[in-house]
Amino acid sequence: MLNTLDHIELKRVVEIVSVDHSPISSKLTEMGLVSGQLITTLFKAPFGDPIAIELNGSVLTLRLEEAQFIEVKA
Amino acid sequence: MKIALLGNPNTGKSSVFNLLTGLRQQVGNFPGVTVDKRSGFVTVDNVQHELIDFPGTYSIYPRSKEESVVFDVLSNPTHSQHPDQIIFVVDTSNLQRNLLFFSQVYDLGIPCVLVLNMWDLAQRKGITISVDELSKLFPSVPIVQSNARIGLGKDRILQALAGLKSTYVHQQSFIDGHPLCLLDDVSGQKLEAEERLKKIKSALLNVVHTKVPLGESVSRKIDRILIHPVFGYVIFALVLLTIFQFIFTFANAPMNWIDAMFAHLASGTSHAIQPGLVNDLLSQGIIPGIGGVVVFVPQIAMLFFFISILEESGYLSRVVFIMDRLMRPFGLNGKSVVPLMSSIACAIPGIMATRTISNWKERLITILVAPFMSCSARIPVYTLLISLVIPKTFVFGFINLQGIVLFGLYSLGIVFALLVSFLLKLFIKQKEKGFLLMELPDYKNPRWGNVFINVLEKVKIFIIDAGKIILAISIILWFLASFGPDMKDSMDGLSKSSTYQTMTEAEQSQAMASCKLSNSYIGLLGKRMEPIIAPLGYDWKIGISLITSFAAREVFVGSLATIYAVQNEGAAQTLLIDRMRNEVKADGTPVFTLASGVSLMVFYVFAMQCMATLAVVKRETNSWKWPIIQLVFMGALAYLSAWITFSILS
Fold this sequence. Notes:
Chain A is mainly beta and 74 residues long. Chain A has helices at residues 25-30, 64-67, and strands at residues 2-4, 13-19, 38-44, 51-55, 58-62, 70-73.
């Protein structure tokens, strides 16, 4: 099932399907958020935003408004 | 020859810089932008070369105005800072992301050395790298391992640099025939990044070998506590409390020593050379002026000592993470929190700490509102006025009313800092959007060498860049307070008066100082502006003290003591309070009432009464525009609020 990253529950491993076009899409790509990449949702800041994810052994944080551009599948 | 130091954030790049240059480093700005340019010297084959530390970025394409210096310098071979050689630092545990930027740099064809830093950390994580395989990806680039945090790798890096000159030939590009994209070509940059990552990923299969460690890493375990919805904030509050306790306990003594030392130096100078203008300029203008710069050093050093530890340990990123959502509605960023909190001790290190905020608009707003946080220099003003006009009664039988007022003043500053941020967010226009796409680095023990160098660097920036402005303003203030058109006549008149003859020597010198200040240019100005400040409940004597306290807020207390010709030290301060209590206006009503006292406190919450802060804002924004806007805006807000306060209370 397709979903965007801001809607994924914690402690899930998901695969990135695509990164939508946005002013920051090149920056998301540069951080390694590319299609086919597996990521794990790690934790949320208090109030649910921003979120932290793990990819390739390192931890990235992003705001929900940034995560919504990333389409993933379980 | 110029050597650039490049790499992602959190790769230990500054450790490598410190390792290579030691203390032979300096800080300036890259031409035309407010980005710190750290540079130093390295000696390769007995020749000195300039090593320039660039901001850590994830790509050659900038995320913000601040980062664009990397693109500007690297893409333009005629740029004055364009490097002849490059040292590129990567985090060994995180090659995939790091090599993206490196492959861009590699394709520029500038001779470079690739440094695999934090080698030991990678090994501990079960990651091993085949250097030979990696070399095949980037032929002709020497690859060295280092562990800069514990001081390993300097010789290897220098050797590799020495070898570069003769052997470097750029054989083939990492991706074929790809010129740099334009800065606004987001799609092109995305495609390029995808192409590079794809190639890196498949190539790294032969290079990186990972034994997946069992269980949760230590950093993840610590994060569960430090990012916890409740404990996270409690711990951050405790950390701040500890820092403030430390600063308020230990900064005072050295500040008093500095004051005493410069007072000693001034009186020594005034005795050593013959009386006259030069003597006065030195002993009353320049030496106290320099003292007024140096006295900030203990607070700045201590705050940056703690901020550096928080940063080095990796905790600062967690603070940003848990505070970001709370600060965003106000046009601020999670990174604004530490600068604003530091401003409760002193706005100067707070404003200097905003360099970590990469978005210019968010950084500017943080700088502009930082002085609203009540700093330690306001405490003497608050305590004097509170003990003067607020009765020592208890609310509900146990809460001290004076304490409530003090708490109220601090809260007022914080509330207005956020309120004004919100307004500025609407007014300051910027296309660039702030975002929070960052790494949470693993927790590490802070390296004391890095902490020490960082503290030294901030102190140096303050003394050199802000110091000259502060010194200039304090000399102007000294001139205005020491000269006046009729000053000599008034002082002569006083010395001949009969009451003066009956005074003790101490009283005489106090009376003379008071006469001098009231008849100086500042005194005249204070008298002139009495009609302007009368609606706030102030008389000309308060007016004079307002002007002199532009040097630093706490000067207000000393100035009043001078004007009232009373001593103001230790137990003698009760004299000042008594004297102020008895002060009456022409119509016989007291000057210091609840209304005028509270109005004055409110004025000090808002007014930009600190030339040192203005000088630092000038340094950090690289123009006089913002400090002047800040001065006018905060002054107007102070006037208005003090007027409203006085009108309501009287």
